[in-house]
Amino acid sequence: MKAMVVAFAVLSSAACGVIGSPIPPEDVGVAPVIERQQRLDALEAAKQEALESQPAVEPQGQDVELPDLRPVGTR
Fold first, then answer.
1. DSSP per-residue string spanning the chain
2. What's this model's pTM, rounded to 2 decimal places?
């Protein structure tokens, strides 16, 4: 029983403070988030501007005349 307690204590103390890889300081804080949002807004504005600059294609008339939509035979 003592061996299990000692093993648990050793393993848990070795893992203290180990969370993951370090985060670069450029990615921490509010400024990088604001810059990322501004870049995304600029991309969306450019896409919207490109869509608005394209001419609208109007549908043309039918190539083939279709028959009337009346029932042919009923019971």
1. -HHHHHHHHHHHHHTTT--SSPPPGGGSSHHHHHHHHHHHHHHHHHHHHHHHHSPPPPP---SSPPPP---S---
2. 0.43
What gap in Å lies between CA 35 and CA 42, rounded to an integer? 11
Per-residue pLDDT tens over the stretch 23-59: 777 777 888 889 999 999 999 999 999 888 877 777 7
CA 69 to chain centre: 45
Could you tell me the two tokens for 48?
């919207």
CA distance 44 to 41: 5
Handedness of CA 39, 36, 32, 35 (dihedral sign): positive
The whole-angstrom separation of Cα 51 and Cα 54 is 6
